[in-house]
Amino acid sequence: MLSDTFMTDVVIIGGGIVGLATALQVKQQRPGLKVILIEKEPDVARHQTGHNSGVIHSGLYYKPGSLKATNCIRGYKMLIDFCDAENIPYDLCGKIVVATKQEELPQLETLYQRGLLNGLGGLKKLSLAEMREIEPHVTGVAGMFVPQTGIIDYKQVSDKYAQKFQSLGGEIHLNERVEQITPGTSLSIVVTNKDRYETKLVVNCAGLYSDKMAQLTQPGGVDVRIVPFRGEYFKIKPQKEYLVKNLIYPVPDPNFPFLGVHFTRMVHGGVEAGPNAVLAFQREGYKKSDINLKELFETLAWPGFQKVAAKYWETGLGEMYRSFSKSAFTKALQALIPEVQESDLEPGGAGVRAQACDRTGGLLDDFAILETDKAINVVNAPSPAATSSLSIGKTVSEKVMIRF
């Protein structure tokens, strides 16, 4: 039985870093608006944000002019300024991107040119000898140094967003799951497992369930589905952490929306190695044994996913093999650091990426925001959404302001 009906201007669904940044930006731009953020978990930043590897992305990879490029570069500056103002620690340690074989050199050059177009200063092409001055144990045929990349704790950032949002009069309602959204003429009705909300506008930042929420706001449905990909990490044992000074990335496959296994020094200490990218059998499936048959069937039945599977089956099988074979995972890491041995790795964490997939089999490469009269749906905001969070929040809040 529902206990209360709340009248409000804006309901934001999802307490991850994007939802929190959006809530904060809305309240900062229009303090008089009544804004309520609803989160189904007992705390904020429990899913994609809380399982994030903690990298501050530079904007290197993204097509110039795309939402990812513009929001990452603007969001990077906003994040650094916010952390400086709020005394949140971070380290702009830089990273190297490594071509491990000759055929990757054209893609490395493409990345370099893209970085220049996106306004990244200080990019430096590297020979193997120069790479080893930065990362003594790395190997490869050529590389590039990206000084803007850094490391941070995004859960700490999210908690500060939440604190500042609430200090401005915003409300965060935890342990509430949205079950129904009924768009009306002037107001939408949002029903949760606890309460009922009458709101002028719904903003959907539900991450792994953003497509489900979007379908509730659009009776005709939306033509994208979230396909969950689990990324699994190993940790380098403490006695071998000397092998990695900061961040070491491979040249990514331009046809696959993942960056490949890499090495990441963590802001609180330790080194992660990974991730792979395998289909999760549950939207919040962080372990191989996590299976939700209904969600798995929905993924497998989606025509877009079937086309993705047909196109990338060989890559997918390789990722799945690495998921079950530590030796295969180690071999992938040895392409960057040959000294890494299977015995140097211990199990790490895992995250699930909410990757939007359209009906034609397109894995959406850019951030995607769908709008109706009564709703703004952020339906695709994977990496670099954490770096870009304040910029995405500003982009969405500007769309909110138009409604008021």
Give a description of the structure.
Strand 10 and strand 11 (188-192) form a beta hairpin. The protein folds into 3 domains: 5-49 and 155-223 and 366-403, FAD/NAD(P)-binding domain, CATH 3.50.50; 95-147, no CATH class; 225-248 and 256-358, D-Amino Acid Oxidase, Chain A, domain 2 (2-Layer Sandwich). The chain is an alpha+beta fold and 404 residues long. The strands form 3 sheets. Strands 5, 6, 7, 13, 14, 15, 16, 17 and 18 form a 9-stranded mixed beta sheet that branches. Strands 1, 2, 9, 10, 11, 12, 19 and 20 form an 8-stranded mixed beta sheet that branches. 33% of the residues lie in helices and 26% in strands.
Quote the average pLDDT: 94
* Total DSSP E strands: 20
CATH-defined fold name of the largest domain: FAD/NAD(P)-binding domain
Number of domains: 3
User: Which geometry do the CA atoms define?
Assistant: globular
What's the short story on this structure?
The protein is an alpha+beta fold and 404 residues long.
Structural key phrases:
404 residues; alpha+beta; FAD/NAD(P)-binding domain; D-Amino Acid Oxidase, Chain A, domain 2; 3 domains; 9-stranded mixed sheet; 8-stranded mixed sheet; 10 helices; 20 strands
